[in-house]
């Protein structure tokens, strides 16, 4: 009887190990940007990135990072990052609140604060410099 319990226990453990498989094949999954929302608690955030050393020309390939707190900004622990298309990084609809932004293009960067308000589109302009 004791041997039977041991066999059943080992069988359950083996079945558990065999049932565990990695299902995600993409090691860097893309994040979903919500582009339509009717919630009163979400607002849309867009960030325009300009080059401060080149007559404020639009930068098409800037990376913009979104942080929930200043501590996360200091630790570079962002909740989302978007690459600018035609000079604008569109984060879509996010929950209302205060956020920190960091735009980066090569060695040029800028840091800013933004307040997202419900049912509004906020466009923040950031000017990256060395």
How many angstroms separate the termini?
A: 75 Å
Outline: elongated
Output the radius of gyration.
23 Å
Per DSSP E runs of 2 or more residues, the count of β-strands stands at: 8
- Write the element-wise H/E pattern from the N-terminal end onward: HEEEHEEEEE
Helix content: 10-25%
* Model regions low in confidence, pLDDT < 50 over at least 5 residues: none
Q: How many separate helices?
A: 2
Main sheet record: 4 strands, mixed
Can you put this structure into words, describing what you see?
The protein is built from 2 helices and 8 strands; from the N terminus they run αβββαβββββ. With 130 residues, the chain is α+β, with helices and mostly antiparallel strands. Strand 6 and strand 7 form a beta hairpin. The radius of gyration is 23 Å and the shape is elongated.
What are the salient characteristics of this protein?
single chain; 8 strands; 2 helices; alpha+beta; 130 residues; four-stranded mixed β-sheet; four-stranded antiparallel β-sheet
């Amino acid at each position: 009887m004791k041997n039977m319990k041991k066999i059943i226990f080992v069988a359950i453990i083996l079945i558990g190990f065999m049932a565990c498989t990695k299902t995600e094949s993409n090691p860097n999954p893309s994040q979903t940007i919500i582009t339509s929302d009717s919630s009163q608690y979400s607002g849309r955030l867009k960030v325009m990135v300009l080059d401060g050393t080149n007559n404020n020309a639009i930068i098409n390939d800037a990376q913009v990072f979104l942080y929930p707190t200043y501590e996360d900004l200091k630790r570079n622990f962002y909740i989302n990052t978007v690459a600018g298309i035609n000079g604008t990084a569109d984060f879509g609809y996010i929950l209302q609140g205060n956020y920190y932004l960091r735009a980066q293009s090569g060695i040029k960067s800028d840091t800013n604060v933004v307040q997202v308000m419900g049912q509004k589109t906020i466009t923040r302009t950031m000017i990256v410099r060395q």
